[in-house]
Design goal:
single chain, 461 residues, alpha+beta, Naphthalene 1,2-dioxygenase Alpha Subunit, Chain A, domain 1, Rieske Iron-sulfur Protein, 2 domains, seven-stranded antiparallel β-sheet, five-stranded mixed β-sheet, 13 helices, globular, disordered N terminus, binds FE2/S2 (inorganic) cluster, binds fe (ii) ion
């Protein structure tokens, strides 16, 4: 292969394209908070291939349920979805089903969703109840989980009503998310979250609410979907329409020393992809206005040769400030323009930016290792007084439905469709691959490797 053909491979190993994220942030007029000025490239994760069976083997999936899903803290819902006593959702993962309910104004509990008489699911969907009554023979439990009614009580004298309570999973709260854990001996949520709360101090997610929520049955293993959304290496090929305004190859990937569950990437926007070469500022702005309703109709005039970042940030501050009723004049350029995406093992990717306040969640679809559920939520800022519109119901998409047909996602829907079509091909391709593992880039796919290191740690426990 000629040097020209391998392109950037001729660059020195480990040499990343400039400007780096930190180069750009250091030029911004409104400086990013210290937490975003940190850079922590992964160290010592190795370069070994990742075995492909973990993406389709039933045996691996079954062990993952046992060793991961029944052991980790995982998000069940948002607090604002269940504002009143009696409100609840049903959270399902593999064979498990929980009723996550507000049982008192300040208490949320997660009950195992099965009648203790003959095993009927007590709830098949969320809603509002004042007790949990089984639809088969009428055994009933109060919101406190205590048995309150036995039909033909004379015939169940062997039941002790005081101990015949609904079993519970553990519940923890952070950032407006309701977390559950099936393991009674698990580490505390506080310890599990590691650095995440400190990194979100200047961007309190509990002051946000769910403004859109779309869930789709995906034609791939949950890890494949997860992995496609925690790297930017694929952007210039899979999403070529964004190349004039997404600094994909400049992305900063952070895997913090000693941290198991959290990693991060920062992808610049308003900066062209290094794969594209020279792009004028006007072209960058024009294409952003084309793809992001957010900037459409904003009057962004650049002086000759001016980089568009400052003006884009001003436009974003004005627009988000108006829609949220907040004063964003001191918010950094980075936090209104860029993609600042965190990851919490095993399956949550909350973004830390006012511009595109996305949150992804990925999980298996029942026990089928070749399908999954992927969700996109938009977490908008609440008004200063804490008020917010009621969160909309989840829009469910089948395996053949398009993200872009769902309401409320804007251009994120089109982008997710491009990813979905690749994910289907990966799931199929892995089965025909003559190589026992997939090969990862050392830097740009370091979050995927970090995810697998933590996954292996749980699987081997
Ligand atoms: S199975 Fe629930 S009351 Fe009988
Ligand atoms: Fe993508």
């Amino acid at each position: 292969m000629t040097e020209a053909a391998i392109g950037k491979a001729k660059a020195r190993p480990g040499e990343r394209p400039r400007p780096s994220v930190q180069d750009v942030l250091s030029q911004d007029s409104k400086p990013a908070p210290d937490i975003l000025r940190l850079e922590s490239p992964a160290q010592g994760l190795g370069s070994e291939d990742i075995p492909i069976e973990r993406y389709f083997s039933q045996e691996w999936h079954d062990r993952e349920v046992e060793k991961v899903w029944r052991k980790v803290w995982q998000v069940a819902c948002r607090e604002e979805e269940i504002p009143n006593v009696g409100d609840h959702i049903v959270y399902e993962i593999a064979d498990e089903s929980l009723i996550v309910a507000r049982t008192a104004p300040d208490t949320i509990r997660a009950y195992v969703n099965a009648c203790l008489h003959r095993g009927v699911l007590l709830r098949t969907e969320g809603g509002h109840v004042d007790r949990f009554k089984c639809p088969f023979h009428g055994f009933t439990w109060g919101l406190d989980g205590q048995l309150s009614h036995i039909p033909s009580a004379w015939d169940f004298e062997h039941i002790d009503p005081d101990t015949f309570c609904l079993p519970q999973a553990k519940v923890g709260l952070w950032g407006g998310f309701v977390f559950v854990n099936f393991d009674p001996n698990c580490e505390s949520l506080e310890s599990y979250l590691e650095i995440l709360p400190a990194h979100f101090e200047g961007y309190p997610l509990e002051k946000h609410y769910k403004a859109a929520h779309v869930a789709k049955i995906m034609p791939c293993n949950w890890k494949l979907a997860n992995e496609a959304f925690i790297e930017s290496l694929h952007i210039h090929v899979a999403h070529p329409q964004t190349s004039a305004y997404v600094g994909d190859e400049n992305t900063q990937y952070d895997v913090f020393p000693g941290v198991r569950h959290v990693n991060r990437m920062i992808t610049l926007e308003g900066v062209p992809s290094p794969f594209l070469g020279e792009v004028s500022g006007e072209e960058t702005v024009r294409q952003m206005q084309r793809d992001m309703p957010f900037y459409a109709g904003t009057n962004i005039e650049l002086a000759p040769g001016e980089a568009p970042r400052e003006k884009l940030a001003e436009a974003a501050r004005a627009k988000i400030g108006k829609s949220s009723g907040r004063d964003l004049s001191d918010v950094s350029n980075c936090e209104v323009i860029d993609v600042i995406e965190y990851f919490l093992f095993p399956n949550l990717a909350p973004w830390r930016g006012h511009g595109v306040p996305i949150c992804y969640r990925f999980r298996p679809y029942g026990n089928n290792p070749e399908m999954s559920i992927m969700e996109i939520m938009l977490l908008f800022a609440k008004a200063e007084d804490g008020s917010h519109p009621k969160p909309p119901p989840v829009t469910w998409l089948g395996v053949d439905d398009n993200w872009s047909d769902a309401p409320g996602l804007g251009s994120a829907g089109f982008v997710a469709d491009q990813d979905t079509s690749n994910l289907k091909r990966i799931q199929r391709g892995l089965r025909t691959m003559r190589k026992p593992g997939i090969t990862l880039a050392n830097y740009q796919e370091s979050r995927i490797r970090h995810f697998h290191k933590t996954l292996e740690h749980y699987m081997e426990a």
